[in-house]
Amino acid sequence: MSVERSIGEVLLKVEGVTLSFGGVSALSDVSLDVRRGEICAIIGPNGAGKSSLLNVINGVYHPRRGSVTFRDAVESPLAGGRLIDSLIHWFIGSLVIANALIRAISQ
């Protein structure tokens, strides 16, 4: 598989996410894509909304506007946790593969 092909697929898409707590805006129209093979970092000063964004992505907070899509599963307050299930299955699968590779290399 070529590098261009493996980096091309969007796995996680955050579009126009807006989140506020009372009158305080935590996130305003945040969008990002994470593609297969990429490493993405969320950086910023204290209070910039990094944890709030991660909590929107993992379903703890529900944004006032916008959406989060993981492998074509759109998360919304009414989605019933399908995104979280997809993330957990993908993560566990990745751990199993990583453990198998480490064992194969170390033997």
Task: Outline the structure in words.
It is a single chain. With 107 residues, the protein is α+β, with helices and mostly antiparallel strands. The protein has one domain (3-106): P-loop containing nucleotide triphosphate hydrolases (Rossmann fold), CATH 3.40.50.300. It contains 3 helices and 4 strands, in the order αββαββα. It has helices at residues 3-8, 50-57, 82-106; strands at residues 10-21, 24-35, 65-70, 73-75. It has a 4-stranded antiparallel β-sheet. Strand 3 and strand 4 form a beta hairpin. The two termini are 26 Å apart.
Uncertain segments of ≥5 residues (pLDDT<50)? Answer: 1-5
- Whole-number total of structural domains: 1
Name of the CATH class: Alpha Beta
What gross morphology would you assign?
elongated
Mean pLDDT across all residues, rounded?
78
Question: Strand percentage, roughly?
Answer: 25-35%
Helix-residue proportion:
25-40%
Under CATH, the topology is which? Answer: Rossmann fold
Spatial order of strands in the largest sheet: 2-1-3-4
Q: Could you say what the CATH architecture is?
A: 3-Layer(aba) Sandwich
Task: Fill in the keyword field for this structure.
disordered N terminus, 4 strands, about 30% strand, elongated, about 110 residues, Rossmann fold, alpha+beta
